[in-house]
Amino acid sequence: MTTNDQTLINQIVEGDTNAFAVLVDRHKDLVFTLALRMLKNREEAEEVAQDTFIKTYKSLDKFKGDSKLSTWIYRVAYNSCLDRIKKNKKHLNTIEINEFNTHQVLTIDNALDKMETKERNVAIQKCIDILPSEESFLLTLYYFDDLSLDEISKIVGITANSIKVKLFRSRKKLATILKSQLEPDIIDYYERERR
């Protein structure tokens, strides 16, 4: 945990509302994005994001500092989303995985690397929106927050190895969707490049 985090926590626990506003400001965008990926609904995502910060505020004194503060906040967000999903009993249709091999997943990653960052983010975002909740959540942390497997594992509460397997499966699905959404000739071009 950074000293910056610790200072912020101390100020908040001592009742400094400005410090809490800084904390919210720092993490609100990603918390909302993660909630949106899980819940696929703007209003619910906004409610869960607010809920996450209320829960964070109330239990900040219980934060032990064994991970980054952001990791802990995203875990609160993740659990709040799971609660909401259970409450709604939403069953999102799952995407069929075409058996994509490692080469094809790398090709997709390669194509994404070469795209302009903005284009790439828009393409990934569109596709992530289609995926089921948990996978959307994991891929958001992986692609947009550049978190390590260990950090993601702390947020979701499963081993880094399981995260690796889940991420690979999710990226295969992402590849399937991207393949159908991106211009086919772009993908063909990158596949030729790799030969």
Give the secondary structure arrangement, pairings included.
Elements: H1 3-13, H2 17-39, H3 42-59, H4 69-88, H5 102-114, H6 117-130, H7 133-144, H8 149-156, H9 160-181, H10 184-194
Helix pairs in contact: 1-2, 2-3, 2-4, 2-7, 3-4, 4-8, 5-9, 5-10, 6-7, 6-9, 7-9, 8-9
List keywords for this structure.
195 residues, mainly alpha, Arc Repressor Mutant, subunit A, 78% helix, 0% strand, elongated
Order of helices and strands: HHHHHHHHHH
CATH class of the largest domain: Mainly Alpha
User: Considering the protein shown, what is the CATH homologous superfamily of the largest domain?
Assistant: Winged helix-like DNA-binding domain superfamily/Winged helix DNA-binding domain
Radius of gyration: 18 Å
* CATH domain topology of the largest domain: Arc Repressor Mutant, subunit A
Overall mean pLDDT score?
80
Shape: elongated
CATH level-two architecture of the largest domain: Orthogonal Bundle
Helix fraction, binned, reads: over 70%
Largest sheet composition = none
Oligomeric state of shown chains: single chain
Query: What fraction of the residues are assigned to beta strands by DSSP?
Result: under 5%
Q: Given the structure, what is the number of helices?
A: 10
The total number of structural domains is 2
Distance between the termini: 45 Å
* Alpha-beta classification: mainly alpha
In total, the number of strands is 0
* Unreliable spans: 90-96
